[in-house]
Amino acid sequence: MSEENERPENRLRKELPEEVPARAPEPASEQPAQAPLTGRDRLVKGIWPPRVSRAQLIVALLLFGLGFGLAVQVASNSDSDSALRGARQEDLVRILDELDSRTQRLEDEKQGLEKQSSELQSSSDQAAEARKQTAEKEKQLGILAGTVAAQGPGITMTIEDTKGTVKADMLLDTIQELRAAGAEAIQVDGVRVVAGTYFTDSGKSVAVDGNKINAPYRFKVIGKPQDLEPALNIPGGVVQTLEKEQATVTVEQSDKIVVDALRRAKRPDYARSSSQ
Amino acid sequence: MIAVLGLVVGVVAGLLVRPEVPAVVEPYLPIAVVAALDAVFGGLRAMLDGIFDDKVFVVSFLSNVVVAALIVFLGDKLGVGAQLSTGVVVVLGIRIFSNAAAIRRHVFRA
């Protein structure tokens, strides 16, 4: 049936070959669709699947170089000095000038500050020195005023007065004689002798600055022993005068006399230092 | 694919190694990089056009780099290095843009 049918068909359709061209256009239309391969297709084809060919390797090598150079350049450009890298010459000169003047200004400021610092240093040194000297002076004056204890070479003089004949003026003479001989600190029976010290008669004994003292009167004197002792022993001097009054005087030199009787420093009510 | 890999590996290597750029090459490196970029865009466009040829790409890549460096070198010698490198960058930038436009038309059909 089919063969028969085909034959008649073939025979009948002499014009059928016209359909062949109709079939032909289909493959023909497919071919042009493949030929104008779009850019996108080529891109996809180039990327996937990866093919190892000479061209690909060479291009990869060149692109490696490009990427390397790019990364290096970017890295070196993003360094800290990148701000100056792209600057023009005039800008660089201006920046340099500014930096120079700024350096100059800072240098001046630094010098000023250093000068100030050295001034402060020296003034603080001076202040420390002044404080030290003041402290020194305070001690010296304290010895004179009797506010601090003193020690040093000197003599001890003991006046034995069994008959009560020694009067205040004799003790005062003694003090003055000692002072004239260079005594620096004196105490009598536990009473410090200072500039304002006074002696008064008090019955059979004597009072020093209102403090009654009894014989024997012990003088502790700091000063040069070789000066003090002769000053007391000169003919017609203190010792002779006292011995004339039946008193016994003993003078002992010593390398270490401690004058430890103290006076409280009194603030004067009216007198003020005129140096301030 | 391998070419893209090469680019990526190059960037990574440059970032990792961080070599000191020699002072002699320093002024030419940026221009050379831009010129190479131009060559790469040209090559990409040629590939999309279907006329890519590796020999042409290699020659254009290398010659671009060399000529760009040469122009900068010459400009430095003439005392117009800054202006000339600006000019080179402008020209290469225009070419890159036109190539990018062609690539865009291929890829996005727009």
TrEMBL record, chain A:
Residues 1-21, 106-117 have a biased composition (Basic and acidic residues). Residues 22-36, 118-127 have a biased composition (Low complexity). It comes from the Bacteria. The chain crosses the membrane at residues 55-75. One of its GO terms (cellular component) is plasma membrane. Pfam families: DUF881. Coiled coil: none annotated. Gene3D superfamilies: Protein of unknown function DUF881 (3.30.70.1880). The keyword Membrane applies. Residues 1-38, 106-133 are annotated as: Disordered. The keyword Transmembrane helix applies. Keywords: Membrane, Transmembrane, Transmembrane helix. Belongs to the UPF0749 family. PANTHER family: UPF0749 PROTEIN RV1825, UPF0749 PROTEIN YLXX. This is DUF881 domain-containing protein. It comes from Streptomyces yokosukanensis.
UniProtKB/TrEMBL annotation, chain B:
This is Small basic protein. GO terms for cellular component: plasma membrane. The chain crosses the membrane at residues 29-48, 55-74, 80-103. Keywords: Cell membrane, Membrane, Transmembrane, Transmembrane helix. InterPro entries: DUF1290. It is found in: Cell membrane. Belongs to the sbp family. It comes from Streptomyces regalis. Its main location: membrane. It is a multi-pass membrane protein. It holds the Pfam family DUF1290. It comes from the Bacteria.
